[in-house]
Specification:
By secondary structure, this protein is an alpha+beta fold. The chain folds into 2 domains: about 50-220, no CATH class; about 225-345 and about 360-560, no CATH class. About 60% of the residues lie in helices and about 10% in strands. It has helices at about 5-40, 45-60, 80-85, 90-95, 150-160, 225-260, 275-290, 290-300, 305-345, 360-390, 415-450, 455-465, 465-475, 485-505, 505-525, 535-540, 545-560, and strands at about 70-75, 105-115, 120-125, 130-135, 165-170, 180-185, 195-200, 215-220, 395, 480. Strands 1-2-3-4-8-7-6-5 form an 8-stranded antiparallel sheet. Strand 2 (about 105-115) and strand 3 form a beta hairpin. Helix 7 (about 275-290) packs across helix 11 and helix 13 crosses helix 14 (about 485-505). It is elongated. About 40% of the residues are buried.
Length: about 575
């Protein structure tokens, strides 16, 4: 059975794709390019930061390379501060006033020394300047001075580049007890934000050196109303993820196992095992690649390095086990979904088999239409987010766990999109819509005492998309976009469109569309992250769906047996 779509529909797709691509470029890409043209930037690589940290440790802290047991570099970000500046249109003000000396994003080098102490050095990601540091004393280190005046603390900090006249002490912030003082910046802050500086003198410190126990660090002081609301949003996202995504997915897993058995006569239990295994392998590789990303938030919140690394190991182990469960779920959803659709739509076959004579051609066509659909979705997504910004005050902030800066190998990052494309399209769209459609049409037939009309069946199919779309959307509310319900609106709307494309063009098309969508989004991030060399990875992964589609076509033609007929 060949599977060709009307040329008219393909023409409509191409026009819609062109419009979507233009919207994406004008709303998302071109504004950044204009800003980049005005103020081009390039960030340091993690290896460059390691070299700077080693050199600075020797130069200013008297720590020779032979004393360094380990050196880890992590990108840390103050997502709350960035979110505040973004929400209230203060990013330009922030960059003009504080960014050069007090960036919200830094590279932090954690140097473990042979005496059990730690030296934490934070660097500006572009200039490479040291912007904050802390020397955690090991056992037996000198105690902090018993009494330190604030002016003494500022005078000592001046030797590290702090302009003493810009700061005023915060009342009751310490000093007398532990040698540590907190200061507030005198300058005009962006909006209602403030800037705090913590200075802790070592027992024998001066402007020329920094014995164990010293510290110069800053943090942003944000309006309490903003941080309280952000806390509520994050708690809501966690609750919604559990109730709206994880629990329903557990139920879907059980249903997939049951319906795989019930409809086994309409499918094959060999279906989906390769894709499920591939998705797990991708997730495993990407998880290992994100070690520093998992560390970032823990370190930013002040967790000691050893405790953070233990927590990261546990988190990664749990993530891998969950991914293994997700792989089994993908497999059973593939089998059950194939059986459901073959039972409901005999002869249409939303998911062709390798043994089909035209499998390679269908995969290649799916790839081409996948790109067109991805461009449509990119444009629609851009318009939706713009509307959410205007209507709900939606804003995005940074997430250190999702940046290439924290990837061991940044070029591996875009592969993550293929994991999402395979797992989510098989679980949510293929099986999720299929099972809901089966139930709704069965209920309609029971109530009407006859098979529903084509019009009724079509309406019920659209209705069947709502629950799986919600499960999908609830699984994304934990991303750094606020308010969290804005993602529900965005993804439910996109989910209707993706569901229609799946029913119209088949499973492979939406897998390619999802992969192309993520490839463009992640690739754009790599193109604009200021990292040397990431551009090549971006271009390669934007082209990866095309390469995969072409490879499937060639491989199928090469390996298929002569005389193979369509099933």
């Amino acid at each position: 059975m060949t599977h060709r779509q009307p040329a008219k529909l393909d023409g409509i797709l191409r026009m819609a794709a062109a419009a979507g691509l233009l919207l994406f470029l004008f709303l998302q890409v071109f504004p950044f390019i204009r800003n980049f043209a005005k103020e081009p930037f390039q960030v340091l690589t993690r290896e460059e930061v390691r070299q700077r940290a080693e050199a600075l440790a020797a130069e200013r802290f008297g720590t020779e390379a032979g004393r360094i047991v380990s050196l880890d570099v992590t990108h840390l970000t103050d997502s709350r501060a960035t979110g505040y500046f973004s929400k209230y249109g203060l990013l330009d003000d922030y960059e003009e006033t504080w960014y050069a000396d007090f960036p919200a994003d830094v590279y932090r080098a954690d140097l473990r020394l042979d005496d059990g102490s730690f030296l934490h050095l934070s660097f500006h990601m572009e200039s490479g300047n040291l912007v904050s540091w802390e020397y955690e004393a090991g056992d037996g280190a000198d105690a902090a001075p018993a009494s330190v005046r604030p002016e003494d603390a500022l005078a000592w900090a001046a030797g590290w580049g702090i302009r003493a006249g810009e700061w005023t002490p915060v009342a009751d912030s310490g000093g007398e007890a532990d040698g540590e003082w907190t200061f507030r910046h005198r300058g005009g802050p962006p909006g209602e934000a403030g800037l705090l500086l913590t200075v802790r003198l070592p027992a024998s410190g001066d402007a020329e050196g920094a014995p164990a126990g010293g510290k110069i660090a800053y943090r942003f002081e944000l309006p309490e109303a903003f941080t309280a609301e952000l806390d509520r949003q994050q708690e809501r996202a966690l609750r919604w993820t559990m109730l709206g995504n994880l629990l329903p997915q557990a139920a879907m897993f059980l249903l997939a196992v049951i319906y795989a058995g019930l409809y086994g006569n309409y499918t094959s239990f060999r279906r989906g095992w390769f894709l499920a295994a591939l998705a797990f392998l991708i997730y495993f590789v990407v998880t290992l690649n994100m070690w520093s990303g998992y560390r970032a938030d823990l370190l930013f919140e002040g967790l000691p390095v050893d405790e953070a690394e233990t927590a990261v190991f546990v988190t990664m182990a749990v993530s891998v086990m969950l991914a293994m469960g997700g792989a089994f779920m993908t497999y059973f959803c593939a089998v059950a979904g194939d059986g459901l659709w073959n039972r409901m739509e005999p002869g249409k076959r939303l998911w062709p088999r390798w043994r089909d004579a035209d499998y390679g051609e269908r995969a290649y066509d799916a790839m081409k239409r996948g790109y067109l659909i991805a461009f449509i979705l990119l444009g629609l997504q851009s318009v939706i987010f713009l509307a959410l910004q205007a209507g709900l005050g939606a804003f995005a902030t940074t997430d250190a766990s999702q940046t290439a800066y924290n990837m061991t190998h940044p070029w591996v990052y875009p592969v993550y999109g293929w994991w999402a494309a395979i797992g989510e399209e098989i679980q949510i769209r293929f099986f999720g819509i299929g099972i809901m459609r089966l139930w709704l049409i069965g209920l309609a037939a029971f109530l009407l005492r006859k098979a529903p009309s084509a019009r009724t069946a079509a309406a019920l199919t659209w209705l069947a998309m709502i629950p799986p779309n919600l499960v999908w959307a609830f699984g994304h509310v934990g991303y750094s976009i606020y308010p969290v319900y804005s993602r529900l609106i965005e993804l439910v709307l996109l989910g209707f469109l993706i569901g229609w494309f799946m029913i119209r063009f088949g499973l492979m098309t939406v897998i390619f569309a999802h992969a192309a969508l993520d490839a463009v989004l992640i690739g754009t991030q790599l193109l604009t992250d200021g990292m040397p060399g990431d551009a090549w990875a971006a271009v390669a992964f934007m082209a990866s769906p095309a390469l995969v589609g072409w490879a499937i076509l060639r491989l199928h033609r090469l390996l298929r047996k002569p005389g193979t007929a369509a099933a």
